[in-house]
């Protein structure tokens, strides 16, 4: 009985970590964003400092550290060193948090991690959907607006009611939700996980994020190809049918037509240049062309774009942002890191044993093509989960 109590208490710690990572919007600005999960991790470090241990690095982790070292070095020679200094401090802080995440997750086996993911995923999506409904009520289901409006969990963006939930960007929401969506999709045997899958699907679709939804569809297709199971196909089709039924009910009750909005979003893609992303990508390549080896410097694209084009905007493509800011050297380091992660996933047959980890990585890569995510805590949480799984798997192999 005592061991069960202790394990449940430990699982609560992991659950809190997952939830607090999703609450990064609610931070304290002290020159940099001090986020809830950071405070939580440092508090855990103080409580268990004597037993803190830095685990052996995986090969891809070494490459990642080398990339960030070079990324920060480029700031020393950049045109806007103040901007580089800010991101250097952010990189240092999140890397410290990454090692703390690894330490916390190392104490748990797969079952405890999955229980924590179930609880955190349901809470994250459930609260976000409630905030979205509160936002729709607050704007009285009137979406026509020339300016961006944020009410509770909804963002009115070019007359589209987009879910942001507990975050502040609908596109980032889908990125965060990828971990939960793929987990629920590949572990849909229990009632809780079925509920989680429905909630995560609804929330992701209601963001009306074109890049995010394309990634979701690609992940679904890949999941069916990996499993080649009739049950998996039945699960996917049943949830598609259920979602369609809920969308029709919402349309008749509130005149809120999800299908019409999705169609209009797809049509807009032909006219808005990917919400201006195509122009930003061209500019990123221009900056890279003028600084091909070491780039324009860490976190300098924003400043360059503001100076030359009068727009303080990010690249909205992680790979092009790395290429423009760190040149071919930094890009090769980051690409090698991603390639090593993919090879580890395939070598250890994780796509068969824990497919949600494989599918999440694929989903992340697809969304990085339309988002700037050089430093993101959810991505580091994923890497910490993957590192813990690989370490346990390698230990079991050694024991055998």
Automatic annotation (TrEMBL):
Keywords: Membrane, Transmembrane, Transmembrane helix. GO terms for cellular component: membrane. The keyword Disulfide bond does not apply. It comes from the Bacteria. Residues 196-335 form the O-antigen ligase-related domain. InterPro entries: O-antigen_ligase-rel_domated (IPR007016), WaaL-like (IPR051533). Its main location: membrane. It is found in: Membrane. It is a multi-pass membrane protein. The chain crosses the membrane at residues 12-31, 37-55, 62-81, 87-105, 117-143, 197-226, 238-263, 284-302, 322-346, 358-385. This is Polysaccharide polymerase.
């Amino acid at each position: 009985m005592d061991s069960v109590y202790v394990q449940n208490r430990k699982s609560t710690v992991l659950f809190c970590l997952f939830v607090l990572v999703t609450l990064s919007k609610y931070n304290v600005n002290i020159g940099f964003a001090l986020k809830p999960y950071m405070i939580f991790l440092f508090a855990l470090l103080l409580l268990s400092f004597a037993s803190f241990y830095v685990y052996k690095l995986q090969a891809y982790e070494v490459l990642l550290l080398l990339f960030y070292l070079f990324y920060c070095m480029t700031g020393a020679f950049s045109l806007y060193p103040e901007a580089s200094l800010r991101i250097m401090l952010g990189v240092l802080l999140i890397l410290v948090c990454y090692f703390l995440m690894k330490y916390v997750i190392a104490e748990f086996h797969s079952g405890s991690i999955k229980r924590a993911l179930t609880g955190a995923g349901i809470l994250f999506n459930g609260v976000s959907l409630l905030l979205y409904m509160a936002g729709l009520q607050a704007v009285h289901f009137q979406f026509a607006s020339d300016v961006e409006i944020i009410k509770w969990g909804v963002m009115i963006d070019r007359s589209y009611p987009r879910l942001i939930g507990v975050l502040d960007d609908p596109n980032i929401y889908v990125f965060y939700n990828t971990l939960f969506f793929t987990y629920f999709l590949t572990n849909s045997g229990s009632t809780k996980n079925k509920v989680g899958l429905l909630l995560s699907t609804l929330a992701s679709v209601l963001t009306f994020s074109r890049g995010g939804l394309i990634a979701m569809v690609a992940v679904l297709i890949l999941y069916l190809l990996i499993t080649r199971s009739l049950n998996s196909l039945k699960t996917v089709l049943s949830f598609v049918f259920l979602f369609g039924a809920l969308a029709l009910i919402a349309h008749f009750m509130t005149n809120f037509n999800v299908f019409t909005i999705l169609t209009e979003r797809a049509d807009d893609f032909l006219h808005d240049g990917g919400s201006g992303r195509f122009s930003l990508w061209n500019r990123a390549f221009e900056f890279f062309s003028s600084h091909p080896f070491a780039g324009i410097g860490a976190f300098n694209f924003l400043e360059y774009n503001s100076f030359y084009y009068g727009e303080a905007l990010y690249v909205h493509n992680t790979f092009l942002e790395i290429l423009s800011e760190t040149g071919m050297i930094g890009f090769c380091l980051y690409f090698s890191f991603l390639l090593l992660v993919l090879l580890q996933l395939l070598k250890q047959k994780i796509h068969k044993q824990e497919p949600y980890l494989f599918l999440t990585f694929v989903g992340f890569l697809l969304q990085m093509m339309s988002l700037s995510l050089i430093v993101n805590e959810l991505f580091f949480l994923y890497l910490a989960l993957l590192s813990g799984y690989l370490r346990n798997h390698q230990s079991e192999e050694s024991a055998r």
